[in-house]
Amino acid sequence: MAPKSKRETVGGVVGQVQQQQSSSEKIFPPARSMAHFIDFFNRKKTFRPKKHFTPGTLKYSLHKRAVASFESQADLKRTVQLPEGETLEDWIAVYIVDFFNRINLIYGTITDYCTPATCPTMSAGMKYEYFWTDGCQYKKPTRMPANQYIALLLDWVDSTVNDQKQFPVFVDVPFPSNFLATCKKVASRMYRVFVHIYIHHFDTLTALSAVPHVNLCYKHYYYFVTEFNLVSKKELEPLHDLTERLCQTIPRYVYTE
């Protein structure tokens, strides 16, 4: 994530989010359940097929538990915490996949408005710009339009979570030693989609009455990545003010490699 020459705060966006929350709840209440969330975005446009867990597997069971906790409208910060008796790797894997599906749905609603003309670079305001690299087709950090960057990002995440060597499906197959490092990379890159959507497509979200849904998903994601130390403070910085208002207070967060 390279700094750009000028600085732009997200205060304006934060103010709009607050105003939208107070006014939109009267005409479009916040998402009340996972089913409501999925139904709302499925009525729009899905960017790519969603990944599903196989019924009867441990991950399917954990997925259902995660969804149930989300639908219960319990404390989101508490719902992401590792349940007693479950393994850290399985729990993180399930949430990574669930959030990939949700972010895919959210971005699908604004793809028609995110074009090379409207978003010639993958940026976060005027302070940060993201360059794509994957070690294969793009071995060096490459500047590109936001829609191309996000398409490559979601394809890369899709490939990663469907690689059984990196995300094992069966209980008797151990997770690789670099699993958490992989999840940190995935989580950080997916966070950039939130950053771009909030800063550059907030008006579109407002017009689609999608802000309450995105806010709910973002809060859940923020609590998840900070609970398990998956995204660095530097990556979180572009939405710091927004996060502070949506989550009321931001606890002291120490990221370690």
Automatic annotation (TrEMBL):
Q: Which SMART domains match?
A: Mob1_phocein (SM01388)
Q: Where does Zn(2+) bind?
A: C114, C119, H196, H201
Tell me the Pfam families matching this sequence: Mob1_phocein
Q: Where is the composition biased (Low complexity)?
A: 15-24
Annotated region (Disordered), positions in chain: 1-26
Q: Which domain of life is it from?
A: Eukaryota
User: Is DNA repair among the key words of this record?
Assistant: no
Molecular function (GO) terms for this protein are: kinase activity
Recite the UniProt keywords alphabetically. Answer: Kinase, Metal-binding, Transferase, Zinc
By its UniProt entry, which Gene3D superfamilies does this protein fall under? Answer: MOB kinase activator
Q: What is this protein called?
A: MOB kinase activator-like 3
Organism equals Hypsibius exemplaris
